[in-house]
Specification:
Elements lengths: L1 H14 L3 E5 L2 E4 H10 L3 H5 L8 H25 L4 H21 L3 H4 L2 H18 L4
Antiparallel strand pairs: 1-2
Keywords: Membrane, Transmembrane, Transmembrane helix
Protein name: Amino acid permease
Length: 136
């Protein structure tokens, strides 16, 4: 069942180029989120102005957000290399990413979701269920 893990991870990689969130003023892809996290153009406060890094809750939210992104990337790497554990890690990473994003955007969260996010989430879940099979 490693083929399903590989295919689901490839589908997630393809979803990185699609919009994950749609706002009134534009779209955000996973690559855009990753670029914002890694490049930090105006420092920590500029990249994560919405997290309020000066508070304890804001710092915890940032750590959880970064952990979710890291888990998604590690899951794709494991899945592409044929590991059955990849989709499981990706499902947990998507859950963490979702909880933090839901906390940030509040009740309008489901209204801003786009197809890239949905494809990635479903790919990880299906890959976990099918590739997990008997054991991880």
């Amino acid at each position: 069942m490693r083929l399903f893990s590989f295919l689901s991870s490839l589908l997630v990689v393809l979803s990185f180029a699609l919009p994950w969130f749609r706002f009134d003023d534009g779209e955000i892809t996973f690559m855009g989120i990753l670029r914002e996290v890694l490049t930090i153009p105006s420092g920590f406060e500029g990249a994560f102005w919405w997290l309020n890094p000066n508070s304890t809750a804001g710092m915890f939210t940032f750590i959880a957000f970064f952990a979710g992104i890291f888990m998604i990337l590690v899951a794709v790497l494991f899945g592409v290399l044929g590991g059955r554990l990849g989709p499981g890690i990706g499902t947990i990473g998507m859950f963490v990413f979702t909880v933090v994003s839901w906390y940030v955007y509040g009740s309008g969260y489901f209204g801003i979701l786009a197809e890239g996010y949905v494809i990635a989430l479903l790919s990880f879940v299906i890959g976990f269920v099918v590739a997990g099979g008997e054991k991880l």
